[in-house]
Amino acid sequence: MDYNIRQLAEEFKNLEWDQVYSLVELVLSEVSGDRRNTAVEEINRIFHEEGVPYKIVRGKVVQLMTDTESNEIVKAQASSTSAAIHLNKAAGLFNKRPIPDYSNSVKESILAVESIVKGIEGNENGTLSSVLPKLKLHKSLEIGIKNLYDWTSDEGGIRHGLTDGDKEPDESDARFMLVQCASIVNYLIARDTIAPKS
Question: Are 174 and 105 in contact (CB under 8 A)?
Answer without folding.
Answer: yes
